[in-house]
Amino acid sequence: MRADPISLGGGWQRRERTLSILVVGIFALVLLRLFTLQVLQGSKYRELSEENRIRVEVLTAPRGEIRDRKGRLLADCVPSFTVTLDPFDKVYTRDPARLDSTLQALAPILGVDAASLRDKIRKERKVSFLPIRLRRNVEKRSVAFVSEHLDRLPGVQVESEPLRRYPLGLMASHLLGYVGEISDKELLDPVYSNYLSGDLIGRMGIERGYEKLLRGVDGKRFVEVNALGRKGEFLGEKHPILPTRGTDLTLTIDLDVQRAAEEAFEPGARGAVVALDPRNGDVLALASKPNYDPNEFSMGITQERWSELSSGGNYPLFNRAIQAAYPPGSTIKPFTALAGLENGVMTPGTFFAQSCTGEFRFGTRLFGCWKHEGHGSLSMHNAIVRSCDVYFYQLGIRIGLERLSAFMSKLTLSDKTGIDLPQERRGLYPDPAWYDKRFGAGRWSRGIILNLAIGQGEVILTPVKLAQIAAFIANGGTLWKPHLIRSVGSTAAAASGDSIGQYVALDARSLAAVRSAMASVVSDPQGTGGQARLDSISVAGKTGTAQNPHGKDHALFICFAPVDAPRIAVAVLVENAGHGSTAAAPIARKVLQSFFHPAPPESAAVLAKR
Q: Which residues are catalytic?
């Protein structure tokens, strides 16, 4: 039986139509997919493609320069070479063992241990996909070797980046601080969200306190990468984003005064010097001994060297000017005298019933005077000039703890000065509430006032606080907040509110009497501060010797000059040096000499060699 031609033709046409619809449908799906990939999601996949083809490299911004008040350079940045390694290079993803062999080859060239490099890679690859800095400030010889053998060192590159430099070395190290790599813990803190592993951050001093200004803004460079992971400069539409250098800072520091303060100490001595302008709180010098070279940290410091600097011995990283608190000793006596005058319990001509025989009996205890043979009968003026302890024992009893501590609280002795440096320590001048808390209500002796009146007992102050209160007497009653910034970029810092003063109302006659006595401390042949005397400038001061239960007494001296119109106030502390008259006053004299009679200007080259 034959098939009907018409029916056969109809079936074929249906199959052809179905096939055509199927083909059109497939092409429609392909076109739809292409439209989705290239149009709807085109930017996404284009970006992924670019990421595979183009590597983003960070261009580190140079930190801002730091200069003294006369424009002399204290810190800047210079070009240096850094060797980096990309642990995500295709060679290492395919053969992880190659990474270890590369580090073994690099270690002796870079002068580091291969194990430390492996540890660095292990830590940093967890927090960043960028190349890891293996060693900063690499010597030119090592740079040349690495550059010649890049074909055998996959993922290794030699990059140029700014190196923080302190041309004066040890000079002003505690003031300036140093920079170091940001820690893993800090990277987890949202405050440091714009930092990457390996970035440098200010660690102490100005570098830390003004990190946001000094750091600048990093740039980016876009590098084309081939199928083997090798890179070459990409000059297409992605142009480099240049880094923005950090803001320059001009400090209030006078380098002449700073140098004099640091060089005045004997080798191996421990102590601090702070010099202020009593008219506005400008810090003219801030020195702590022993000091350290901040360049060591910029170049990369070993764990052994860090342990040497940070533990045991003299603690050179410890800023004694703001972080250490000491009994002020007799330097507190002018302020005890002010408290007596202001509370009306004495006058400048007051003589006490008991003259100084070298000791004073209070209850069953004997309190000695530093001069064992005694000073005899003295007025307030001569008691300050000759630093008689017995006179101030009796004055302390007459004032009483409540009134004495209330007056000292006006001078903010238990507060920080507010200097714009991190890690400042507060002092302590205890009041009745403090003793009640420590010993129980009323369970402390009235005899504590004798020690407090001469700057012993529980009272402790930092050198920067001593300088602040010396400036307070010098300027007639204003507690200036010490500050270090003179200008930010081209803008004067005074407009930012850094110069903050707190006025304390005092009777002018009280201040005049104390200032006169402090002037005689230096000028009177019987005064204890004669070694701070200058031939051409009148100096007012007060020596101090603070008892130290752990060793030899500490030596202190505070002063200001010229007496009639003070332009500088200084506090000096020398640990375990004995009397302030012989150990601290001569240092103050050298500081004053450098301020009033600075040495002739020197070239930058000469300064850099020091």
A: 330
